[in-house]
Specification:
Layout (H helix, E strand, L loop, with lengths): L1 H21 L26 H27 L48
Helix pairs in contact: 1-2
Organism: Granulosicoccus antarcticus IMCC3135
Function: Involved in protein export. Participates in an early event of protein translocation.
Subcellular location: Cell membrane
């Protein structure tokens, strides 16, 4: 249900963006003097303003409706974690070190007092 509402919401958002970009701005009347005003007769004598304005208004109303519906779905989600502080920790304890050594060795040789891990400096 949430996925379908989200898809409809995105389609409405793209539709609103498209309709807003198609509409003429307030300065479009100056362009009619140079020949661009003839294309407005496709939508009737009043031009495309009333049709596009109504279509944009309807799409925006549906967009707001899907926004409220998605908010309702998110707020009334059952189960799961409701807050970040309620989430279980993601850090797990490290496993205990293994006593199995490669090469069939069963025990580490005991270090003597004279042996060190650092190589001796050349004299």
């Amino acid at each position: 249900m949430q996925s379908l509402a989200l898809v409809i919401h995105v389609v409405l958002a793209v539709g609103v963006i498209g309709l807003v970009l198609i509409q003429h701005g307030k300065g479009a009347d100056a362009g009619a003097a140079f020949g661009s005003g003839a294309s407005a007769t496709v939508f009737g004598a009043s031009g495309s303003a009333s049709f596009l304005t109504r279509a944009t208004t309807i799409l925006v109303a549906l967009f707001f409706t899907t926004s409220i519906f998605l908010f309702y779905l998110a707020a009334h989600r059952e189960g799961g974690v409701q807050s970040v502080t309620d989430a279980p920790g993601l850090v797990e304890e490290a496993p205990a070190p293994s006593t199995d050594l490669p090469g069939g060795v069963t025990e580490l040789p005991a270090a003597t007092e004279n042996e060190t891990d650092l190589p001796k400096a050349a004299e």
